[in-house]
Design goal:
476 residues; Rhopdopsin 7-helix transmembrane proteins; 2 domains; 3-stranded mixed β-sheet; 15 helices; 72% helix; disordered N terminus; olfaction; cell membrane; G-protein coupled receptor; GPCR_Rhodpsn_7TM; membrane
């Protein structure tokens, strides 16, 4: 550990074009003229597109949104720069600097993504002209424009928070290079029992998930989307448990209770990536069941191999992106203490070690939790409302029973998985005791991964049949 002094500031000073002192008036005139032309040009474009009904097409809609964004983008930067050139103001408060950075990044990222959307619009118009009006309808255009803006300002918020969470107050902070897990120290006399129980559950989890992945890959009867998603979920759960449980078991027998800062960040990164990946895989499985039951005649067309791969890749990509955002936000904080009141590097226990106020990080964590837990959970439950309404219309009791059976395993896993995640992460701040928090964590790190193979092997006839075939036995 080392002790470092941070010098605090309340405002910044722009150096600007100080190396071109004698040309500053010329630069002011040139930049001012260019700024007026920029403003006038963008305002004219937006006005003309709005007035002329011949320009009410997707291409010009995106152009008007881009022009509006460019107008605000230049407003954020150029007026202050012009003021600095004529010596009106070269200082900016900490709060104003943060605001300027936020809007600069927000509009900058939005502009980049809008150009990508405009490229997609041209691709559809030229490569698929007969379906252009169907694909690029006004609803799609509005969703694309809104999504681009929301994405730009979300990443801008993350970046601004990460930068301005850096310590800017004059005070001594003891910086740490490693953490120590307190683990189950409150149950010191039961640690050996816990080790035996958790090791047994871990072996069962590994064996169950590996069996599922192997059986699905070997048995051609299971080469359908539902079991493809199940194999991806089992593989993800296997790696997910590898990230957490082995170290927890070592800690229980006293082999290692410390972890380096880099090791903690790595563990948190993979934990978040795989946890979010699992959430969205369950959503994809819910969508698969919805299509199979509510639209059976088009099932093989809608849920083709390409779509399935895209859904899996999308789930993993979302996990990676959110993990990078969350981990970078947490590990930009200065840490003063070393004892993590947990058995792995979870988000909130690590944030509690920070020397500074973590309200912004708490808000970011809550926003991310809503996006990656509530939204997928809502989509799954909407799917099941539609599924149940369709099943109830089936005439035969046998048909209804069979349809419910195909969904029962998935809905069981969904309820437990999302239930634990909601309890753990949708509270603004933990109101539970340390022991209660650890019990919840044990549920979603040890119990839930085991639930997947248990439910899908004991309750699923097709998987049990595949197991019998793999063992060379005749079906009972």
């Amino acid at each position: 550990m080392k002790r470092t002094n941070f010098t605090g500031v309340r405002e910044f000073v722009f150096q600007g074009f100080s190396n071109f002192q004698e040309y500053q008036l010329t630069l002011f005139i040139v930049f001012f003229a260019l700024y007026l032309l920029t403003l006038a040009g963008n305002v004219i474009i937006v006005t003309i597109i709005r007035i002329d009904h011949h320009l009410h097409t997707p291409m010009y809609f995106f152009l008007s949104v881009l022009s509006t964004s460019e107008t605000f983008y230049s407003l954020v930067i150029i007026p202050r720069m012009l003021g600095s050139l004529v010596g009106l103001s070269q200082t900016i408060s900490l709060e104003c600097c943060e605001t300027q950075l936020y809007f600069f990044l927000g509009f900058g990222i939005t502009n980049c993504l809008l150009l990508a959307v405009m490229g997609y619009d041209r691709y559809v118009a030229i490569c698929n002209p007969l379906r252009y009006t169907i694909i690029m309808n006004w609803r799609v255009c509005t969703i694309l424009a809104s999504s681009v803006c929301a994405t730009g300002f979300f990443f801008s918020l993350v970046q601004a928070v990460s930068i301005f969470r850096l310590p800017m107050k004059k005070q001594n902070h003891t910086l740490v290079s490693e953490f120590t897990f307190q683990g189950f120290s409150n149950f010191h006399e039961h640690e050996l029992t816990l080790f035996v129980v958790f090791l047994a559950l871990y072996i069962l989890t590994l064996a169950g998930n590996i069996i599922i992945v192997t059986i699905i890959s070997l048995d051609r009867h299971l080469h359908i989307p539902m079991y493809f998603f199940l194999s991806m979920l089992s593989a993800s759960e296997t790696v997910y448990t590898l990230v957490i449980i082995p170290r927890m078991l070592f800690n229980l027998v006293g082999l290692s209770q410390s972890i380096s800062l880099a090791g903690c960040a790595t563990q948190m990164f993979f934990f978040i990536t795989l946890a979010i990946n699992n959430c969205f895989l369950l959503t994809a499985m819910g969508y698969d069941r919805y299509v199979a039951i509510c639209n059976p005649l088009r099932y093989s067309v809608i849920m083709n191999k390409r779509v399935c791969l895209q859904l899996v890749w999308g789930a993993f990509s979302i996990g990676l992106i959110v993990a990078m955002i969350q981990v970078s936000a947490v590990f930009r904080l200065p840490f003063c203490t070393t004892k993590v009141a947990h058995f792995f590097c979870d988000i909130r226990p690590v944030m509690k070690l920070s020397c500074i106020d973590t309200t912004a990080n708490e808000i970011l964590t809550l926003i991310i939790s809503v996006l990656v837990i509530l939204i997928p959970m809502s989509l799954v439950f909407i799917s099941y409302i539609l599924i149940i309404s369709t099943i109830l219309k089936i005439a035969s009791a046998e048909g209804r029973k069979k349809a419910f059976a195909t969904c029962a395993s998935h809905i069981t896993v969904v309820v437990v998985h999302y239930g634990c995640a909601s309890i753990a992460y949708l509270k603004p701040k933990s109101e539970n005791t340390r022991d209660e928090d650890q019990l919840i964590s044990v549920t979603y790190t040890v119990i839930t991964p085991l639930l997947n193979p248990v439910v899908y092997t004991l309750r699923n006839k097709e998987v049990k049949d595949a197991l019998w075939r793999a063992m060379g036995n005749k079906l009972p």
